[in-house]
Please model this.
Amino acid sequence: MATRKTSPDDLLGPVTLAVGQEDLLLDRAVQEVVAAARAADADTDVRDLTPDQLQPGGLAELTSPSLFAERKVLVVRNAQDLSADTIKDIKAYLADPVEDISLVLLHAGGAKGKGLLDAARKAGAREVACPKTTKPAERLTFVRQEFRALGRSATPEACQALVDSIGSDLRELASAVSQLTADVDGTIDEAVVGRYYTGRAEASSFNVADRAVEGRAAEALEALRWSLSTGVAPVLITSALAQGVRAIGKLSSARGGRPADLARELGMPPWKIDRVRQQMRGWTPDGVSLALRAIAEADAGVKGGGDDPEYALEKAVVAVARAARMRRA
Model:
């Protein structure tokens, strides 16, 4: 039985257990294992599964010997929601894992599905903590660690200003740190953060995003041209567009409830919940996916991947506005 505890550094151990409810950290835990597996074998087969996609007996099929003896990464999300029979299958697998297969279990923690959590720990799974950040001090620590991981220096005032400007969403904080380190040389100070994320620039970039996610293409394009003419950094606009679309995706998949309850669940202020509820009319899951792809292309374009950053932004704004009207069409 696999009772030897896997080293935290052994990304290719038989089982990785990511525990918590912070989506960014859960995704990173998965990405680390996948990257390590593909570094060992570029043809690694990755399967990303939700509880409804992993039925009883499915794990045996996925872990059965392959004709080509390929490496596999099996990702099981929301493992606490698996059926009782599927949990039995996983517990049996933990006793005798297959070589060259990395099983990644994402578990929210807590009482639900605790038997699987305990079994994975007893089997010696490599464990990654992915707790939800609920305190400003925790978000400040996260920002400092992000800068450090990218090999850059940022003053304490800059880190605090970034948290104050962006809020509680770790994805947006990580994106902001990445953008600043890519665009700014030397130590990042409060003045740099202020230039990017506060004041008129923030207001105008989010004005573009608000009009686009509401499906008002002409007004969004007008706001875009005004923002660019007044010196707003293009990366601020792609960031605002991404935040707007992600907020719609998060709220559309959340359970119903009062704004205050949803605010705690999604890490948004209650006033933003009300605004996003109004903006999400007309959006579909496919629309969110299409919009995020268009924004990603624009982001690459404004960072040097294209010849005309302004045109890249215009295309993204139009694509987002069209995606906002998919349900109405």
